[in-house]
Specification:
Layout: H1 28-44, H2 50-80, H3 93-125, E1 129-131, H4 138-152, E2 158-161, E3 175-183, E4 187-195, E5 202-204, H5 211-217, E6 226-229, H6 230-236, E7 246-257, H7 271-280, E8 287-293, H8 298-308, E9 315-318
Parallel strand pairs: 1-6, 8-9
Antiparallel strand pairs: 2-4, 3-4, 3-7, 5-6, 7-8
Amino acid sequence: MPAQRMSPSHQPARSTVDLDDPSLYINRELSWLQFNWRVLEEALDERRPLLERVKFLAIFATNLDEFFMIRVSGLRRQVTGGVLEVPPDGMTPSEQLAAMHRTLTVHLARQAACWQQDLLPKLQQAGIRLQHYRDIQPPQRAFLRWYFEREILPVLTPLAFDPTHPFPHISNLSFNLAVVVNDPQRGERFARVKVEDVLPRLVRLPDEDYAEQYMQRGLTEVLANTFVWMEEIIAAHLDMLFPGLTVAAAYPFRVTRDVDLEIKDDEASDLLTDMEEQVGMRHFGSVIRLEVDQTMPDTVREVLTRNLDLAPSLVYTVDSPLGWLI
C-alpha cells in the first residue's frame, strides 16, 4: 500500500524558538552561586542541630574559596587576555564578574547575620562560649600569656615591610595579621604576622578560678567549653614579637590566589612532573580576593591592596570569622 501523504494542514509546526536567545540559558557561575546559597540555607534552617548549622556555614565559606580559586580566577584571566567570545547566556567575563560581586554581597551579608545574630547567641545558651580577648578576666589573660609564650611564640615569624624591605609573599588561604608599629627612630611601620597552620584556630580557656592551677601543673590542654580566637591571642601579645616597638594595632586578613592548573598535555614530556610543578605553584598565583575584618581602617587596607596589586572590587569586608577553619 502506498504511503499516505500528509496534507499541509497536518504538517507539524516548525519551532519558532530562537536557540541563540541568551534568555534561554543560565549562566554557569551565577548558577553555582545559587547552589552555594542552598548550602547557606541549611545553616539558616533552625530545625537542624546547632553544631550542624555551624558546619554548614563553614562549608558555605569553604565552597567560596574553591569558587574564587578556580571560577573567578578563570574569568579574570579572560578579562586580562581580552577574550571577546561570550557563552550562550550572552554575558561577557566582565559582566559575569560584576553580577557575581553583587550576588556575593547579599550572600555574605546573610552569612554574617546568621553568625552574629543567630548562631553565636545560641552557642552561648548551649554552654559553648566564644569569647573576645578583651572580655576575659585577668587570671585567664595570665594563662593565655603563659600559653602564648610556650605554644605560639616559637612558630611565629614577623616580617616588616618598608621602602628597604619588600612586601612579603602572602601564601594562598593563609591567615595573617597586618600589624602597625611605631618605631621611635623610624616612625610608623607595617609588618605581617602569619598565623601558622599548625596552630589551632580556637584555644580553650579555663575558668578564672582554675587558670593558675593549669599553669602550675604545666597543662595546656584545657577541659572547658570557653574558646578564644587564635588571632586575638596573637594580637594581644605582639609586644613579645616586636620588642622595643610600640604596637599600635593589628588587623586580620586573608588572600585567595589563582590556583587553576593549566596543563598542556601535548607539550608535557612527563605529565606527572608537570602536575607536581603546577601544584607547587598554587601558592604563587595572582591574588584574586582579599578578605579583611571590618575593623581594618582604610589606610591599612590601601597598603594591602596597593602591594597586592588588587582592584577595590576584589576586597571583601566581612563581619564573621575569616577562613572558618573551625
